[in-house]
Specification:
Layout: H1 2-5, H2 8-20, H3 22-25, H4 40-51, H5 57-60, E1 71-74, H6 81-88, E2 92-95, H7 100-110, H8 115-133, E3 138-139, E4 149-161, E5 168-170, E6 176-178, E7 186-189, E8 196-199, E9 224-225, E10 228-230, E11 237-239, E12 249-257, E13 270-272, H9 276-291, H10 308-313, H11 325-339, H12 344-357, E14 366-368, E15 373-375, E16 388-392, H13 405-420, E17 423-425, E18 433-435, H14 451-454
Parallel strand pairs: 1-2
Antiparallel strand pairs: 3-4, 4-5, 4-12, 4-16, 6-7, 7-8, 9-10, 10-11, 12-13, 14-15, 17-18
Length: 456
């Protein structure tokens, strides 16, 4: 019985460690993002303490169990942790939730999947999308001149029109593009000419740092402070945001890219200011978007709410406005390729991957100048609006960066591999993964309650 068999200190250690790096202990959560997932080790322990044999919980936690024909129901299933753990232990499970996204995620977590067929379908989709939009995510390497260097991230700054003179104002809080913890030097943007400069240390004294391109003064702090920004043309102090101007415009000011040819001889990351070819990609994307299918591009209004109020304050009114033109073109092309997959199970799996990818494919993503990586829209439970936005590579670079479609395909595949071969990780050092033979996560999905549940 749970009252006497639940080992609190043992379970607390397992659960605390799992919550620190949850995807390593329960890779099934890689199917799709869900906020505040509960530790799977906790619910496994609860079920074994209540329905297992008389051995101490710590002795049987890492062993295989079959609790059929128990029925476990969860009327508020959320991300589905209790159902997944019960299903793994052989129970019949019934779940429900008012949130349709919860239904879809748990359905995909627990559904069986032909992994080789999924991998082949994902490759087929990416092979169809790459020729269509791949060139829009390439740049010319500053070192070897290769015109096909894949871009990891595009960095954009928000702009608004000066209410006094009508000129666009860049809303920079800081001109530091990258810090020197993950790169040999600091990378600073010149506020005069837009060139990127590498400096060993930041010197805030006037005139201490000069731009290598125009010899202008480099500064660390930008003009945007406390929702005010001075116009560089007339000096007028403009408040921001100004919702009456509509959603904010953005200006591309930097790229981080990857050059396989130069990587072995290059120290640190690859940064550059956008050149003419980079800007022409934006023009091409906008032109192609106007003549392409709009079937998969949402025009839904953003409803009022506690979190969406922030978007409204910035002038966003529809979900479409949260993406730039290249993102709309790329994502709609990707969605069309997934929709063309004939097998429903595979199509649903790829649509789930697509949905999770959207976290990193919008103009609310931020750039971490310390870790030099993208921060997804749901890094917090809300809709953060930053002054600097990070546009990610759509398909992603193999083994480089994160948040591309291929990276989420790999996460999904790893999640379903765990469903086939679940494991537990021991306490102590060294940690060991113990694969539990005879257990798995997977079920036949039904459209109504079966007779064994209703008694009819």
């Amino acid at each position: 019985m749970i009252e006497k068999d639940f080992d609190v200190p043992f379970v607390a250690q397992l659960a605390q460690r799992e919550k620190q790096i949850q995807q390593h202990y329960r890779p099934v959560i890689g199917v799709h993002k869900w906020f505040a997932r509960r530790p799977g080790t906790l619910f496994r322990a609860l079920l074994l303490a209540e329905f297992g044999d008389e051995q101490p919980l710590a002795n049987r936690f890492f062993s295989s169990h079959d609790l059929s024909p128990l029925i476990v129901g969860d009327p508020f299933m959320g991300g589905g942790t209790p159902l997944l753990e019960a299903n793994r232990l052989g129970c019949h499970v019934v779940g429900a939730d008012i949130n349709p996204m919860a239904y879809w995620i748990v359905r995909q977590e627990i559904a069986d999947l032909d992994r080789p067929a999924f991998q082949a379908a994902a490759r087929q989709v990416m092979d169809a999308v790459e020729p269509e939009v791949g060139a829009l995510y390439q740049t010319t390497c500053m070192h070897c001149g290769s015109p096909h260097a894949p871009v990891k991230y595009f960095l954009w700054v928000k702009q608004q029109l000066c209410v006094a003179c009508g000129e666009p104002v860049d809303l920079f809080r800081s001109y530091v593009v990258a810090k020197n913890q993950r790169h040999p030097n600091y990378v600073l943007l010149c506020p005069l000419c837009g060139a990127l400069n590498e400096v060993e240390r930041l010197d805030k004294s006037p005139g201490a740092m000069r731009c290598a391109a125009c010899q202008g003064h480099l500064v660390v702090e930008g003009p945007a402070r406390r929702n005010r920004c001075a116009c560089p043309q007339c000096g007028h102090l403009n408040p921001y945001p100004q919702a009456q101007q509509g959603p904010p415009t953005h200006r591309l000011f930097a790229l981080e890219y990857h050059c396989p040819a130069c990587k072995s001889t290059h120290r640190g990351r690859f940064f550059k200011a956008p050149d003419v070819a980079d800007l022409s990609c934006l023009t091409e994307a906008e032109s192609r978007l106007q003549t392409s299918s709009q079937e998969f591009i949402p025009d839904d209004s953003i409803p009022p709410g506690d979190e969406t109020a922030r978007l409204h304050r910035w002038g966003y009114r529809t979900y479409r406005q949260l993406f730039n033109r290249r993102q709309l073109l790329g994502l709609s092309t990707l969605a069309a390729a997934i929709a063309a997959v004939q097998d429903e199970t595979l199509r649903h799996a790829l649509l789930t991957v697509f949905s999770d990818t959207l976290r990193y494919q919008n103009m609310l993503c931020r750039y971490d100048s310390y870790a030099l990586k993208i921060i997804d829209i749901f890094s917090i439970h809300g809709f953060p609006v930053s002054l600097i936005q990070c546009e990610n590579s759509l398909l992603g670079i193999p083994r480089i960066g994160s948040g591309g479609f291929r990276h989420f395909v790999e996460k999904y595949d790893k999640a379903k591999d765990y469903c086939e071969k679940p494991f537990e990780t021991t306490l102590g050092k060294p940690k060991r993964r113990i694969f539990i033979s005879g257990e798995r996560i997977g079920a036949r999905l039904v459209s109504d309650f079966p007779a064994w549940f209703t008694g009819v």
